[in-house]
Amino acid sequence: MPPGFTPSPAQGQETGRVRLCVLASGSKGNAVYVSDGTTSVLVDAGLGASEIERRMAAHRLDPSALDAIVVSHEHTDHIRGVGPLSRRHGLTTYFTEKTLNRAARQLGPLHEVKWFDCGATFSIGSLVIHPFSTSHDAVDPAGFTISAAGCKIGLATDLGIATHMVRQHLKDCSALVLEANHDVPMLEEGPYPWPLKQRIKGRTGHLSNEAARDLLHELLHDGLVQVVLAHLSETNNDPGKALEVVGTIVGKSPLRLTVACQHGPGEMLVVP
User: Fold this and answer.
1) Virtual torsion, Cα 223, 163, 146, 171, nearest 10 deg
2) Is domain 9-264 classified as CATH 1.10.10.10?
C-alpha cells in the first residue's frame, strides 16, 4: 500500500453496503469496481494498469486490496490491464475457458486463474456472481449479476440484442450498468465504413439508445434505483441524447439515471 494511503470505506471500513463505480466505459477501455466492504472485484480491466490504478486512487481504492478480476470477454478494451494488474498485485483472475484460450497471448502470465461457466453461479468471498451468455462477437461473452448485502446489481454491456436470457437475469436488480452504445441516425450518417456500421447494428454488436430504453422499460420496478448508461460511442452517440431517449420511460420512478465516462472514473454509487 502506498505511503499515506487511506483505504476508502468500500475497502474494509464499512460492510453491508454495496458500492459500484464505473472506472471507464467505452471502446477505449472498460472497468467496473464492485465491493460490499468485505470483498472487492474489478469486472474487466480494459485500460492500462497504471491508468486503472490512477482512477482507483481517485476514490482512495487500493488495487492490492482487490480480491479478483472477473473478465467478460477477450476484446482488448476489456482485458488490456488484466495481466499487468494480476502480476503486480497478486490478483486472481476469472475467465471462461474459451475466453482465456483466445486472450492468452495478450494477457501474458497471470498470478492465478480460476474458471467459470456461463449459467453457473460462483462466489468470490461474500459476492455471489452469476454469469450469463450475451449476444456479442466474442468467443464466449458474459454479462453478470452480482449479489451481496441483500441487493443485486446487473452488468450488461456489449450486447448485440437483449435476449430472453439477458432480460431474465437482469430482473429484480437494484442497480444496472447498461449499454447504450449508439444513436441510430448518428451511426448511419457518421464516418464509419458500412461494414462496421452493420456490425455495430447487428445481433452481435451493440445496443442502441432505443434498444436500451426498451430493455430498461421491461426491467423497471420500484427497487431499481440506479442505472448507469455505459459503453457510449464517442463518435456515434452523445450523453445528452442517451439520457433523453432512455429517460423517457423513467417517469416518476425513483430511478437515478446517469452516464458513464470514457476519460475518467464515475462517481462511487452506494446501492441500498
Assistant:
1) 20
2) no
pTM of this structure: 0.93
How many CA atoms are closer than 13 Å to the CA of 81, on its beta-carbon side?
27
What is the Cα–Cα distance from 264 to 246, expressed in whole angstroms? Answer: 22
Q: Roughly what angle, to the nearest 10 degrees, separates helices 209-219 and 239-247?
A: 40
Cβ-contact 116, 128 below 8 angstroms: no
The full set of domain ranges for the chain reads: 9-264
How do residues 164-189 score in pLDDT, each as one tens digit? 999 999 999 999 999 999 999 999 99
C-alpha torsion sign, points 169, 171, 172, 177: positive
* Number of residues assigned to the chain: 272
Query: What whole-number distance in Å separates Cα of residue 59 and Cα of residue 8?
Result: 7
Render pLDDT for 41-92 as a digit per residue (tens, 0 to 9).
999 999 999 999 999 999 999 999 999 999 999 999 999 999 999 999 999 9
